[in-house]
Amino acid sequence: MNTVGEKRKRMKNIVKQGIVLGSIFLLLLAMPLVGMAKLSVTRVLIEGRENPLGINTLKPSFSWQLHSDKFDVQQQAYRIEVSKSTRFAKQDLLWDSQWVAAEQSLNLLYQGNPLATGTSYYIRIHVRDNKKETATSAVQRFHTGLLQAQDWGNARWIAKDILPDSLVNPLPLSSSKLRLDKSYDLPVFRKSVQVKKKISSSIAYVAGLGHYELLLNGKRVDDAVLQPGWTKYDKEAYYVVYDLTQAWQQGKNTIAALLGNGFYYIPPIKGRFQKHKVAFGLPKLKLKIVNIYTDGTQEIIVSDAGWKTHRSPITFSSMYGGEDYDARILPDHWSAPVYDDRNWQQARITDGPHLRAQDIDPVKIMQRFAPVELQQADGGKRITYDFGQNASGIVTMQMTGQAGDTVRVYPAELLTADGRPSQKHSGSPYYYQYIFAKDGTVSWQPRFTYYGFRYAEVQLHPAGSKAVRMDAIQLAHIRNSTAQVGSFQSSDTLFNQIHGLINWAIKSNMVSVFTDCPHREKLGWLEQLHLMGPSVQFNFDAERLFAKSLRDMRQSQTNDGLVPEIAPEYVQFDWGGDMFRDSPEWGSSSIILGWYAYRWYGNKSFLADNYAMMTRYIDYLGTKAKGHILTQGLGDWYDLGPERPGVSQLTTPGITATAIYYYDLKLMVDIAMLLGQKEDAEKFETLRQAVFSAFNQQFYRPQEHSYGSGSQTALAMPLYVGLVPQEAQQAVFEKLTTTVCQNDTALTAGDIGHRYLLQVLHSNNRDDLIYAMHHRDDRPGYGYQLRKGATALTESWAGLPNVSNNHFMLGHLMEWFHTGLGGIQQDAASTAFKHFRIEPKMLDALKDCEISFRSPYGKIYFNREQSKGNYQVEIPVNSQCTLVLPKGTYQVNGRAMEVQTVNVNEDHVEFKLGSGKYTITQ
């Protein structure tokens, strides 16, 4: 047997000779023998969240990540304990799984004694690995939500006014005329209670529609905005759970709330922008607080007719028109215990939707931008600020004025030729307004609306002879606060800028719904979910947002099975018949997103929860097909043709719709088999074969090895989804590359086709064409938008001023940055990146590239510094990686260890790596 010293001596000799496996040598840096960190359990998740308050099940799932500085670490066994207390005493244990010999660390379901609603529990995880290390997690807490209506006890929905049934309109037609109904005041509510004993626990369950801000003793209970998230309100609404244990004071306490309309009600007011006329009802509140005292007694506080209500100082609130605040209506201390509310009216009891605990991260202010430039006009009464970044957000202001003075702010993406904000193509008029109640300095920001903007014009309107002064102003960028889990940086300045351009469009359209734009529509158009899903996932923890998106689709699905193009569906667009409601490329997110999310996160609930919707949608598409061909919808939306962008111009109608239909069926075969639905799988397979034959009979031109018009999209989509006969695949691919080259590598594919074009070129090792198509700024594309001054991805390839200048529907190149230039891709048979590859491309054109993202198992990192001949790799515990590098000689300073070689060919060598951090030098 070789001793350690003999092994080291042998490895040193190999280094000197430089010959291993046919002149290929790889030495990997190992950690020192002393001071090595032990195994640890990190990031324990309950239903996808850490320490969640308000989960929607009594059988939660548990996941965790592991960390170790050793190499090739795999979990060998786990043990889960769930307890009623942090002591984990035997009498408190509800579940002890005992030691289970398994690698699984994701999505393990609770199997203990029944849990109760509205109750806190505690969990800890024990793990044993293949290095004989054992670790125990920190204790995590989770709180079950109120799952049934009776769990709310005596809590009632309360309102100031109630919308007549004749005016309730949860799904208006886009062509319906503006209803000039009476104006309804927004409400505020308050309730005072006495606290005479010490509180050991206080949990609040709060629903306020459309949005609310909750205060206790005059202080906000959180820093979220636009709470709760948007839903299909005729089906359900969200409530939010808070731990208020430390917020109470002895004696008198006052609970208060402001409400805004959100998407629950779009006020029909002349002189303000109104995209559509949805009306589920007027703002309302439902609340339950459970206080448990140290003596074991409890008190329950609920919303009921005993609450007081008053006209809000927010005099106008609209997702599309802006927000007005009149500080003269109520004093600043209206929500404090000292305020006298005897003249307020009693709240009215009303009804409301079914409630579900919000299980996505809240929207918050995530970044602030100070002005980089300003221009004054009208003697200083009009100031235009440039914040330097187009982003979703609101303004936050500090200003000094006198009673009755008015400050009005118009945000905008672009400026007119004379330097004024232009809202012409982003929803107009939209503005914020504040009226002073008294002389002095105030700080203010709107609460229940937002806009996409880079510029803001501030108009100062004094009531008297004294001037109003702007002391400070910022653009406060709001987005969903889910964690950013990925990064990309390279030696290529243009690609870095493009990644930033796309990233800002994602952030600006990621609220509680993935929107198309943060201004004129703010609607959840569905095609971007499956087309941009991988790009989003490489950068953000989108698991819960995608689960919500699929839930929105389920609740928006029609009785005949149609999944409309928007979810939640707040308006039924009837322009051009069903063109803007029934596009298979959009509705198919109901299937494709579910599959992609399952593959990415390893959570089978993405399939099981949505299977009924998926099968109903497949059946619906079957009723629309003629000879197995679908022709409805928008096609390759916003492709680059001779006309103004919009409905597909270059691709033969039916190609994209039928190709997506085929892809749906192909995925449904796999989904049905995974879920044990064998008969369904056979049905889908038979239909898939029929669509294959019909598509090729209808669109394939064998003499030219082309489909339809032969556009980039018409050739790429059939190749990607598998519609090209095997014997013709190479010829059709060559036709595609010839078409691209003959067009001087200019891109023409639109919203639907562009991702498939990139995927087909990448999978066939033509990343050089992707590089050539996108690494320039002299024609429509990403670089062209940057050259025109864009700071977020625009709706059109040409960055037109007459469309949205903050859209993420065309951001597919971001995925290639991570999978192509960075080289990180999951193995075909893997889920949750249990097994993945790192195979970077374009090594000759791009010298350096650093990429990372947090997979469900932990951080994956790859840094190639070719300028230094250096590679750094990090692989999380419980995962395996196949690293693909150019053929050559590799070595490293320090202690060395051998690695299994998987494959060697003329161009590259593949190595199989277990977990750990590696530094490789060429």
UniProtKB/TrEMBL annotation:
SUPFAM superfamilies linked: Six-hairpin glycosidases
EC code(s) of this entry: 3.2.1.40
Bacterial alpha-L-rhamnosidase N-terminal domain: residues covered: 197-367
Alpha-L-rhamnosidase C-terminal domain location: 823-892
Organism: Sphingobacterium zeae
Protein name: alpha-L-rhamnosidase
PANTHER family, A to Z: ALPHA-L-RHAMNOSIDASE, ALPHA-RHAMNOSIDASE (EUROFUNG)
Lineage, broadest ranks: Bacteria, Pseudomonadati, Bacteroidota, Sphingobacteriia, Sphingobacteriales
UniProt GO molecular function: alpha-L-rhamnosidase activity
Alpha-L-rhamnosidase concanavalin-like domain segment(s): 381-469
UniProt keyword Hydrolase present: yes
Keyword annotations from UniProtKB, A to Z: Glycosidase, Hydrolase
Catalytic reaction annotation: Hydrolysis of terminal non-reducing alpha-L-rhamnose residues in alpha-L-rhamnosides
KW Hydrolase (keyword) present: yes
Enzyme class, UniProt record, top EC level: hydrolase
Pfam families: Bac_rhamnosid, Bac_rhamnosid6H, Bac_rhamnosid_C, Bac_rhamnosid_N, Ig_Rha78A_N
Residue ranges constituting the Alpha-L-rhamnosidase six-hairpin glycosidase domain according to the UniProt record: 484-819
